[in-house]
Design goal:
two-stranded antiparallel sheet; mainly alpha; single chain; 82 residues
């Protein structure tokens, strides 16, 4: 079995794909308790990493939005309030 990448080094897309696999394995119900706990822990680490990456992208996107006159302004995501 190949060693897994640390959650911090996995791309967002790789993380989501791995999370899907983990969920399928956990839902299968054929794992030992140790395997279940290990997968759960890996899934939580991946979930946290994906959330951090998504937050960074949201911050990058909201920094600058081009307006019609080639000027720039700050744009907030709908769930954010000033």
């Amino acid at each position: 079995m190949m060693p897994r990448k640390k959650a911090e080094t996995v791309s967002f897309e790789e993380g989501l794909k791995r999370l899907e696999t983990i969920v399928e394995q956990l839902e299968g119900g054929e794992l030992s308790l140790d395997e279940t706990v290990a997968l759960y822990k890996e899934g939580m680490e991946l979930s946290k990493n994906c959330a951090v990456q998504l937050k960074k992208v949201q911050q990058d996107v909201k920094k600058i939005v081009e307006t019609s006159q080639d000027t720039f302004s700050l744009a907030l995501f709908p769930e954010e309030k000033e």
